[in-house]
Design goal:
The structure holds 2 protein chains of 2 kinds. Chain A is α+β, with helices and mostly antiparallel strands. Chain A has 3 helices and 16 strands. Chain A is elongated. The termini of chain B are far apart. The chains are: A alpha+beta, B alpha+beta.
Chain lengths: ~450, ~180
């Protein structure tokens, strides 16, 4: 570009000189027709032409010098811009990620529910129908990286919008752990953490699953959301193969003897979650998980847990229990998806505890199809159906039909519904549920649910 | 005692075998570029992120890149890009090669997150082969996610879209709109 400019200037100058000389010659020729000049006149003319040529040559040299100087200046300016850009980018790169703010992250999720459900077994324990709006969960995540290899993560949750004396909600600290890298594939973690079991317990952001409410199999059997204080390791043992091993506090499920008011929940896992709130007399428990994610869209996982005493160490009973869980979560490129999960507790109830069965279990299967929203509607839509069966506490000491404490009854349900994601992190949900169960069950609900879910 | 020794060996094997001790920097960008161009890499070029381009990049990445220009390497109809994008907390560095407006190769060069590392394996990155960009700046093929690695997958997909878009911009500017490309 610059050389083109220089050449153009030179060409113009050359044309100008040529033009002047030709004009001068024409004048001379015309003059010669009029009168032949003398030798002195010719000499003077030549001298004048020579002077003019020298003047023009001097101007040309000057122009050349100016162009050369401009070239140098352009080159210098380019180098300066380059240096400034490099310096800016280097400064940005060096400061990015090093400040306190860069190393601290905030996130969260939330879900607002409307439940319109009628209790179709209201002869037991009265009418437990629901017609309610509830901001079920408002969650904030806070994380901080102390160094590249040591980090903190926490999850603080407000359930049911309002907490305090007499209110239905509560504030819960579900995660607060420190993780340290052993190497790039293995990490040590200590603190309060959700246990690596199932699908929903680990990934419970509401825009990631179908159905307004979390499925009953995982909430009742596993029971999600379940967190404990503990220490453990997690990482990758081969491409696509991940593991978790955790030693943590055990359950504090009621034994049905020491506190009769809790007899209806005898050996119920969900009622044994201490939530790490002044949890006394916990025995140790161990949880392990192996997960395969070596194929796009696929997760297959199995988890196992051993509780050495699920009623805690303060009572006179030793109740050891094991939990097994297996699941598959698959999303195909065509939009088809499938989730299925099975979970089972085997509980060794000793003599003295009224307990009607030695195992409780549940399973579900959930096919789904997700597709781009039609026409002007932004985002994606997913439709699903779910069939589930699970065991749950169905009786109560106060229930008039005489169901004994510690009795589990079986439920089953069908859910159909849809999610609309205008953005991957925002979902509007609808589902219809149809539950059925043992006639001794306190609550069997049919109806529909609406939900708003987000994550950031 | 014998069992303990066996467990100890298993532990050592697990933590110190060559695979699991792999570093988080899997390949230097310069090595990737040399490999892509079979040891005869062209000179680096830079595309300045001017106002119009900035807006379009924001549409894809959902944020500004925070840089003045992006480097790339071009030879014939192929361009190679080194891009970074945060997954959940830390940036993932990817090398991406575009050939005739389609992804020829995408590779994770550095991964610094504490989860979602599966995106570096061929079973995931192979999905991007021959993927092109639609008019709405989305990929013309669905990329299957990885459970527990949603944000890493999203970051990789964004970088793939950005590389395809920038390749188109380079081609477009080379065919008529000068001014934003700087050869170095």
């Amino acid at each position: 570009m610059q050389s083109l400019f220089v050449n153009s200037q030179r060409k113009n100058l050359f044309i100008s000189i040529s033009y002047v000389l030709i004009l001068w010659g024409l004048i001379d020729i015309q003059a010669s027709h009029a009168e032949t000049p003398s030798a002195e006149e010719m000499w003077e003319t030549i001298q004048q032409q020579q002077k003019l040529i020298e003047e023009l040559k001097a101007r040309l040299d000057d122009t050349d010098q100016r162009v050369a100087m401009n070239e140098v200046k352009v080159e210098e300016a380019t180098e300066e811009v380059e240096a400034a850009a490099e310096a800016f980018e280097t400064a940005q790169a060096s400061t990015r990620g090093s400040s306190w703010a860069d190393r601290t992250t905030v996130g969260g999720y939330g879900e607002l529910h409307y439940n319109n459900l009628s209790d179709n077994n209201d002869t037991v324990d009265g009418d437990n129908s629901l017609d309610q709006v509830d901001f079920h969960r408002f969650v904030l995540y806070f994380g901080h990286e102390f160094t590249d290899n040591i980090r903190f993560f926490s999850e603080l949750e407000l359930e049911h919008a309002l907490s305090g004396d007499g209110e239905s909600g509560e504030v819960e600290l579900e995660q607060a752990w420190i993780e340290m890298d052993i190497n790039d594939n293995h990490r040590f973690r200590a603190g309060v953490d959700i246990l690596p079991i199932g699908i929903i317990n680990v990934t419970h952001e509401p825009n990631t699953f179908y159905g307004v409410e979390r499925n009953k199999v995982e909430t009742e059997i596993i029971p999600a959301t379940w967190w404990e204080a503990g220490i453990g390791f997690n990482g990758e043992i081969a491409p696509g193969w991940n593991y978790d091993i955790v030693a943590h506090g055990g359950l504090l499920s009621p034994n049905g003897v020491d506190d009769p008011s809790k007899a209806s929940s005898t050996l119920r896992p969900r009622s044994g979650r201490s939530k790490v709130s002044k949890a006394e007399d916990q025995d140790i428990a161990f949880t392990g998980r192996l997960r395969y994610t070596g194929m796009p869209g696929l997760e297959v996982g199995i988890s196992g847990q051993y509780q050495s005493d699920m009623t805690g160490t303060a009572d006179a009973f030793d109740v050891d229990a094991t939990l097994f869980e297996g699941h598959i979560d698959y999303k195909h490129a065509s939009g088809f998806g499938l989730r299925a999960l099975y979970a089972r507790w085997d509980i060794d109830a000793p003599t003295g505890i009224t307990y009607t069965q030695n195992s409780i279990d549940g399973w579900y299967i959930e096919p789904a199809y997700r597709f781009k929203a039609p026409g002007f509607v932004p985002g994606e839509i997913g439709v699903f159906t779910r069939y589930a069966e699970w065991d749950a506490i169905g009786g109560s000491g106060n229930v008039p039909n005489g169901v004994p404490d510690g009795t589990y009854v079986q439920f089953e349900s069908w859910n159909v519904g849809m999610n609309w994601w205008p953005h991957p992190n925002v979902a509007f949900k609808f589902d219809y549920q149809n539950e059925s169960g043992d006639s001794r069950a306190k609550v069997i609900r049919d109806g529909f649910n609406l939900g708003l879910a987000y994550q950031f | 005692m014998k069992t303990n020794s066996l467990l100890f060996c298993l532990y050592c094997g697990l933590f110190f075998n060559p695979h699991v001790f792999a570093t988080g920097n899997y390949q230097e960008p310069s090595e990737f570029i040399q490999e892509v161009f079979s040891g005869d890499a062209p000179r680096v070029s830079k595309i300045w992120i001017k106002k119009d381009l900035k807006v379009k990049i924001r549409e894809i990445m959902e944020h500004d890149l925070g840089v003045l220009r992006l480097k790339y390497w071009k030879k014939n109809d192929r361009t190679a890009w080194i891009l970074k994008e945060i997954g959940k907390v830390r940036p993932i560095t990817a090398g991406i090669v575009i050939n005739h407006n389609k992804i020829e190769r995408i590779k994770v060069l550095a991964f610094r997150e504490s989860r979602g590392w599966e995106v570096r394996y061929p079973f995931f990155t192979d999905q991007f082969s021959d993927v092109a960009l639609k008019e709405n700046k989305q990929l013309d093929r669905h990329i299957d996610g990885i459970s527990g690695a949603t944000l890493s997958v999203r970051a990789m997909t964004k970088m793939a879209r950005l590389a395809l878009f920038l390749h188109q911009e380079i081609e477009r500017m080379a065919n008529g709109k000068p001014g934003q490309i700087e050869q170095r």
